[in-house]
Amino acid sequence: ESLDQGLQKTKEGFLSKISKAIAGKNTVDEEVLDNLEEALVSADVGVDTTVRIIDRIEQRVAKDKYMGTGELNRILQEEIENILVEAPSAVSYTFDGEMPAKPYIILVVGVNGVGKTTTIGKLAYNFKKAGKNVLLGAADTFRAAAVDQLTIWSERVGVPIVKQEMGSDPAAVAFDTAQSAMSRGSDVVIIDTAGRLHNKAHLMDELNKIKRVLQKFVPFAPHEVLLVLDGSTGQNALEQAKHFTAATDVTALAITKLDGTAKGGVVLAIADQFKIPVKFIGVGEKMEDLLVFDKHEFVDSLFS
Ligand code: GDP
């Protein structure tokens, strides 16, 4: 799906809330600001980020100055865009560009059900399409379904996968995967990990162990720790981001399931509140439905 299609529900909710908030108003008074604040919070932009946006509008617009709805809308769009522009950007690679390392190793983290496996499949598809040799590693050995799902994706996309039986040591799978990547000359390695959050120390230990194993083969690996978040859970996604960033050095975010939800405003909250770039967004279940996140396009799409 395209960005516009993918964000359809969010757009409808967002725009209708905003236009209600400023309907019939031609000055920026307390009431307008309160309405806007309410509209943004209910569009899942999150309280902190909403307050920042409202503060900026307040600073920018003289109180009670005459202003048409169109102009107010434009100022809101600009301030939302400014918030995103100040958030960290992800420009370290593109699918068809040269990778910063070979093999380039991506460790994927996130709780079950957020779309982790699907995102890995979509990434594999994009890298493969760009002519790269991709290898998958099934280090989420905790659930049989996770390995099965990843195997299905590897077949669908046509990329090899390294796996062991369920319950085996994730670090051992990481070892096999890295070894296989070296002998195959893989360009990109994507490793799935178990997303148990109930025990932060355990999660931390497991990820650290995987990192140590990878570094036996490739210095500075993993080059990316990609946290997958389910955008349709709104503020829950923010909570998960807090937990994972506390447990490991997450370097990039993927926000999935933005199609079919009106909670896409959470992307603004996540981009604003974590010093970690949003790199990808998921807008459907198919392999083509992963988009590289572009701040300007995203805001344009919300307001168009
Ligand atoms: P995992 O448990 O985190 O690995 O989650 P899965 O990758 O198995 O995805 C869980 C469900 O969400 C599946 O039914 C996927 O098809 C679906 N899914 C994943 N990403 C997206 C997305 O961007 N949009 C939609 N609509 N569904 C998605």
Short description:
Keywords: Cell membrane, Cytoplasm, GTP-binding, Hydrolase, Membrane, Nucleotide-binding, Receptor. This protein is an alpha/beta fold.
Question: What can you see in these coordinates?
Answer:
There is one protein chain. This protein is of the alpha/beta class and 304 residues long. The chain contains twelve helices and eight strands. It has helices at 3-6, 8-22, 30-42, 47-60, 69-86, 116-129, 144-157, 170-184, 200-217, 235-247, 266-273, 295-303, and strands at residues 104-109, 134-139, 161-162, 188-193, 224-230, 252-256, 278-282, 290-292. Strands 3-2-4-1-5-6-7-8 form an eight-stranded mixed sheet, sandwiched between helices. It is elongated and about 70 Å long. It binds guanosine-5'-diphosphate. Guanosine-5'-diphosphate (GDP) binds at residues 110, 112-118, 149, 256-257, 259-260, 282-285, 289. It is an enzyme of class 3 (hydrolase). Residues 277-290 form the SRP54-type proteins GTP-binding domain.
Multimeric state = single chain
Basic shape? elongated
* Largest sheet data: 8 strands, mixed
Number of strands: 8
**Helix/strand order, N-terminal first:** HHHHHEHEHEHEHEHEHEEH
Total DSSP helices = 12
